[in-house]
Every structure is written in C-alpha cells, then in structure tokens.
Amino acid sequence: MAEHGFTFLLVILAWWLSTGVVMWLCALPRRTFAWSFCAASFVLMASVYGLIRSAPVVSAGGAYIAFASALGIWGWIEMSFLMGFITGPSHAPCPADATGFRRFRLALETLLYHELAIVIAAIGIVALTWNAPNQTGTFAFLILMAMRISAKLNIFLGVPNLTDEFLPERLAYLKSYFRKRACNLLFPVSIVLSTAIAVVLARRVLGAAGAEAVGFALLLALVALAMLEHFFMLLPLPDATLWRWAIPATTKPIDKALP
What is the dihedral of CA 125, 188, 11, 203, to 10 degrees? Predict the structure, then answer.
C-alpha cells in the first residue's frame, strides 16, 4: 500500500502544479502568449511521443510516462482555451431572455471549437494506443474529458460555488452562461457515477500487482481529484487559495466565471 500512497501523492502534486503553471502562464500579458504556447506545443509533441512509446510498455515506468503524457496533451488543450486561441465561434454574453435549449445552444457556441479539440484529441489517443497493453494514458485522458464535461454541465445548470475566480478577462463573457443555485439534478448523478468508477478502480488496484496496479492507482487518484473538484462546487471551500500563487500580483481575478 505504501507504493500506492506515493502514487496518489504524485498525482496530487502533478494536478496542483500543472494547473497552477497553466493559470500562471495564462495570467501573464498577452504579448507572452506566443512564446508560452510555442513552449506548450513542444510539450504537446513530447507528450504524443511519450504516449506512443509507452503504449507497448508494461511497467510502472511506462504507466507513469503514459499518465504524464495524457496530462501534457490535456494541458495544451486547456492553455489554448484560456489564452483564447481555441474557444468557439461566439464571444457574446448570454442574452437575458435566453432559456432552455436556446441558452444551451448559445453556451455551446462559445466553447464549440474547444470541445471539438478535446474530442479529436481523444479519438487520436485511442487510435494511437489501440490494442496496446498500456492503456493508462488513454483512460487518463478519457477520465479528464468526462469529468470536465460533467463539471461544465453542472456549472451551466447551477451550483452553489462556481469556483471560477481565475477566469481571464478575455473570457469574462462566459460567466453569463453559468448559474448559481442550490444544486441541480445532474450533480448527484455525476457523483454516483464517478463514485462507481472509483470503486471499480479501487478493487482493481487491490486485486492487481506490479505495473497493472500502478496504472489503476494513477487512474483512481485522478478520479478522486475530479470528484474533489466537483465537491468544491457544492461546498464553500477556499479552493482558490490552492493556486493563489499562480496569479501575478498585478492581475485582478474575475469573480465567478469558469471552472
């Protein structure tokens, strides 16, 4: 169990640090974006290479490399969104009279290219690792995708704590599409499904050994962190303090806009 504890701590550190680095880079002046995004693109290429090379490797090291590669690809997509490079065809705030499906359609238009980028990346990752023995990176990316979609839908439908004060000014129009309310019907479904996945992964961790156990432990830790982020939406916890260091002192955060 000691090695699983180390794995969990490593995932928590990677989650905290990678999120903070992306926030920090996206909070810098826009003139720095070209250099930052260029560097991130090199990380993307290295991550794709790492994913391909680790896919046939059944070892603890292969699982860690595949997992880190999935995080690198995901980080590039998130940075492209927060920097405003890949968002959607619409940059307009939600009209006051928009409700129901019209409100959903307008919200989707603000994120459409970003969502397509995630889907294309997922298809590409599945194709690159198809039938490979090491699927840690593939499942890690799919978990990130599923839990992020769940988070976006829950914030769109309404939650008590939007956990979004680090939204850049250039994306401030997005906050008009989010709703603050006691809860919504999707939230308990998200928690139940993610808990079921966590239980399955936990049983796999306890029933496996070696590289297989490491891979399942990495995925379990990722699901647990995603669930924690969901609970941040429900409870008034000071989650923003976790990444306060990532925002330059000259940057004024926007109140409540995007997860």
Answer: -90
Contact between residue 120 and residue 200 where contact means Cβ atoms under 8 Å apart: no
Q: Would you say residue 205 has pLDDT above 50? A: yes
Cβ pair 68, 53 in contact under 8 A: no
HEC string of the chain equals CHHHHHHHHHHHHHHHHHHHHHHHHHHCCHHHHHHHHHHHHHHHHHHHHHHHHHCCCCCHHHHHHHHHHHHHHHHHHHHHHHCCCCCCCCCCCCCCCCCHHHHHHHHHHHHHHHHHHHHHHHHHHHHHCCCCCCCHHHHHHHHHHHHHHHHHHHHHHCECCCCCCCCCHHHHHHHHHCCECCCCCHHHHHHHHHHHHHHHHHHHHHHCCHHHHHHHHHHHHHHHHHHHHHHHHHCCCCHHHHHHHHCCCCCCCCCCCCC
Domain parsing of the chain, residue ranges: 2-246
pLDDT digits (tens, 9 = 90+) for 59-104: 999 999 999 999 999 999 999 999 999 999 999 999 999 999 999 9
Mean pLDDT of the chain: 89
- CA distances to 80, 99, 218 from 76, rounded to whole Å, are 6, 33, 20
Cα torsion 112, 156, 107, 101 to 10°: value is 110
Between residues 253 and 184, the one the model is more confident about: 184
